[in-house]
Amino acid sequence: MSTNVVEVRNLRKEFGSAVAVDDLSFEVKQGEILGLLGVNGAGKTTTIFMLLGLITPTRGTIKVFDSDMHKNRFPALQRMNFASAYQFLPYHLKVWENLFVFSEIYGVKNSKKKIDDLLELFELTRLRNTKTGMLSSGEQTRLNLCKALISDPDLLLLDEPTASLDPDMADKARKILLQRQKESGMTILNTSHNMIDVTELCDRILFMQHGKVIASGGAADILKQYKSESLEEVFITIARSSTMEVV
Ligand SMILES: Nc1ncnc2c1ncn2[C@@H]1O[C@H](COP(=O)(O)OP(=O)(O)OP(=O)(O)O)[C@@H](O)[C@H]1O
Ligand SMILES: [Mg+2]
């Protein structure tokens, strides 16, 4: 078994004549938190959707837990989970019902206690009997994070997980994710436009532009490489430069 939980090789996705992901290769090591950064339209969500098997790549390979996601994705999917600030759970179900449905899908043992604990952790207990569609966007995001953690995934994919959270809740969510990661050793792939998320959560960062990786490394390496004191500044420099060399 390789220490790479994710191995992406020469991945490409075309939507008609548009290229969303272009010859993308990267890996995520066991227990690593990798940040996928890039301007709007860089190809981050498309990459995550291909990792989940929701979009079929035009070309290239994806291996998760040494399993080829194109040929045999279900064993890997059982060990993965996903949260996004923009993908909502069924609106007509109550908060607890949504978590119960997903715990059944994943075959979670002792699901009642797990649901109670997660609702408590993300401060949703008082909303447990509320229909999901009635939640505010930040509350829905918190519910998505509960759903993502209900199965104790070995690989967690997060697409802008704190995007609609207030600063206090975003801080709490980061601390919960870090704590869980420390306890379980799970691997996380995280996209974010919030540089606090990136600084506090990520061991390593990939900057994407036009579907390619154009810079990568730990936050400190990247700051050194760009002679900058903030990732926000590096992001803006990269975003406004069209002649960066591919690393
Ligand atoms: N289903 C689709 N059909 C056509 N084009 C698509 C489709 N999905 C994504 N795209 C295009 O692919 C490109 C990459 O989109 P993607 O959602 O991956 O970007 P992103 O990096 O997640 O951006 P953001 O930061 O705004 O979330 C964009 O130009 C987008 O318009
Ligand atoms: Mg996106």
Task: Give a description of the structure.
Helix 3 packs across helix 4. The strands form two sheets. The protein has a six-stranded mixed beta sheet. The chain has a four-stranded antiparallel beta sheet with strand order 2-1-4-5, with helices on one face. The protein has helices at 44-51, 74-78, 95-105, 111-121, 137-149, 167-184, 195-201, 219-225, 231-240; strands at residues 4-15, 18-29, 33-38, 59-64, 67-68, 80-84, 155-159, 187-191, 204-209, 212-217. The protein is 36% helix and 26% strand. Adenosine-5'-triphosphate is lined by residues 15, 18, 20, 38, 40-46.
Write a compact overview of the structure shown.
It contains nine helices and ten strands. With 247 residues, the protein is of the alpha/beta class.
List the helices and strands and how they pair.
Layout: E1 4-15, E2 18-29, E3 33-38, H1 44-51, E4 59-64, E5 67-68, H2 74-78, E6 80-84, H3 95-105, H4 111-121, H5 137-149, E7 155-159, H6 167-184, E8 187-191, H7 195-201, E9 204-209, E10 212-217, H8 219-225, H9 231-240
Helix pairs in contact: 3-4
The structure holds adenosine-5'-triphosphate (ATP) and magnesium ion (MG).
Residues 44-45, 159 line the site of magnesium ion.
Largest β sheet strand count, sense and barrel closure:
6 strands, mixed
Unreliable runs, pLDDT <50, ≥5 residues? Answer: 243-247
Q: Residue share in helices?
A: 25-40%
Percent of residues in β-strands? 25-35%
Q: Which structural category do the helix and sheet elements fall into?
A: alpha/beta
The count of DSSP E runs of length 2 or more, i.e. the number of strands, is 10
N- and C-termini, Cα separation = 27 Å
The small-molecule ligands in this entry are: adenosine-5'-triphosphate, magnesium ion
Order of helices and strands: EEEHEEHEHHHEHEHEEHH
What Rg do the Cα atoms give? 18 Å
Shape: globular
Mean pLDDT: 93
Strand order of the largest sheet: 6-7-8-3-9-10
Number of helices: 9
